[in-house]
Amino acid sequence: MEKREYKNGLASKKRISVAYLSLCKQKRKFSVCDVVNEAKVNRGTFYLHFKNLDEVKNYLAEYLSQNLKALEGDFRMTDLSKTPEAMLSKLNKIIMADLDFFKQIVCLENNPFMKQIERAISVSISNNFEVMKYITNLENFKIVVKLIVSGSLSVYTDWLKGLISCTIDELASFVAQLIRGGLKEVIRYAN
User: Is residue 12 part of a domain?
Assistant: First the structure.
């Protein structure tokens, strides 16, 4: 019985989160009552998981942060510049494991979550010191990292919105080619 209750708890927490995101897209102020109506749960269920709407927003930010940490090891620049497919494959698995959630997240206006993702990935790549000895021009490297991160996130966002019609694996393959090409111009490895 304990496992079932746990699954029900996760399901209701997820429904509340998705309802919160759905209401955010409507660009209006909303209340706990609006969220529980949208999620089709009662207020008691909401308060079992969250104290207020800010906690829902914080929960969503933490959920994204945990997914970023799962990718963190793949942002070792030497590997990323040579075989970006590994990192993109892991990203694809994360997205596909919770596709509806990510579709909701990317549709928010002035999306603080996407900005958080972009900043975290950029910092992780830029702070990778093992690659610094191979960088041919630091300023160009920073520009390329910015273009790769923001461009890749933009392309994935458009795919999640249904604006790009290909499979997620085809998308990753093309993005990998672009990453490899962009980094090739600013990183030179000794043969």
Answer: no
- Report the predicted TM-score, pTM, of the whole model to 2 decimal places: 0.74
**C-alpha torsion sign, points 41, 43, 44, 48:** positive
Range of the domain at 77: 73-184
pLDDT in tens, 109-144: 667 677 777 777 777 666 665 667 778 888 888 888
74 membership: H or E segment, kind and range: none
The residues, ordered by sequence, that sit 6+ positions from 74 with a Cβ below 8 Å of its Cβ are: 80, 86, 87, 90
59 within 8 A of 65, measured Cβ to Cβ: no
Token pair of 44, please? 């008691």
Q: Are 186 and 140 in contact (CB under 8 A)?
A: yes
- The secondary structure element, H or E, covering residue 24 is helix 2-25
d(CA 30, CA 155): 30
> What's the chain's Rg over C-alpha atoms?
19
Closest CA to 16 of 34, 30, 42, 36: 36
At 143-152, the pLDDT tens digits run: 888 888 889 8
Residue 39 located in a structural domain = no
Q: Which of 112, 19, 125 is nearest to 79 (CA)?
A: 125
